[in-house]
């Protein structure tokens, strides 16, 4: 029996009204102190026809910030700023998970509150640039994390998860993808440690497992998800020939925690996807970058995924599900307004009713 993407789903201890998820997307519209901006509740509330809203990455500490104007989830002000977002999402019957994003080496001192160097598994820069208040600058060589730094980072993820629940979120998603700190531990060209966190597959997966365990212990496994992007080269990472086996090991270990979900950014390794599907016993969310509109629902129907996540379609179409049902034309996203700014390209994308009135 096939499953329809429009049907409800059980995620941890909650019910989703459908099997659509909004993928987390950095929008760089937070206030200077990391509090979500004044339009954040409207932005997420507009899109809460989807069953699950996964909010943009929020840094768990000052050290976790990499980009300008990204939100945090580690102070009282941050918690207060996220509460209206949770209320707006819940008012439309959707559920909210806040992504916890520690960028590691993908940082610059000019972008952080304390103006310190970022840290990483090893003191290796990604040979890339990052946008700062004075324009693009090379990402500096990070400082190598001590074992004490690793323990502090794990504790920061734990505390940020607690703060997200205080803010009214239904759970958190640990960001283990897209070239940031957790994935930096996976990649041999970013992790050249000789201690318990480097070298073997088991060692390179150790930090991710420690973070997941700490967050699940703090807020409950049924409120904890994790995002992975096997094979992704963002941030200059190269996972090498052992990469697929590292993910098989990692997913096997994480499966034992009973987490709410695993969110995969799938880049085309179908054999690995099939293996992960067979290993993972909880909800699997699949995000296929560039997925064609005609393919919406196919991964749920085939059983390879339980939920499908969408990014730019949802960014540009607050009424994405209405457009799918009616066959109406889809708005195209405006890349120039992705990061920073105000209402334009954020909360002003037209919905069908407005377009009909204009015509």
Automatic annotation (TrEMBL):
Residue span(s) of domain NADH:flavin oxidoreductase/NADH oxidase N-terminal: 5-329
Pfam families noted in UniProt: Oxidored_FMN
Single GO MF descriptor: oxidoreductase activity, acting on the CH-CH group of donors, NAD or NADP as acceptor
InterPro entries per UniProt: Aldolase_TIM, OxRdtase_FMN_N, Oye-like
Cofactor: FMN
GO CC terms: cytosol
Top-rank taxon, per record: Bacteria
Keyword annotations: Oxidoreductase
Listed Gene3D superfamilies: Aldolase class I (3.20.20.70)
Family: Belongs to the NADH:flavin oxidoreductase/NADH oxidase family.
Protein name in the entry: Alkene reductase
Record organism: Paracoccus litorisediminis
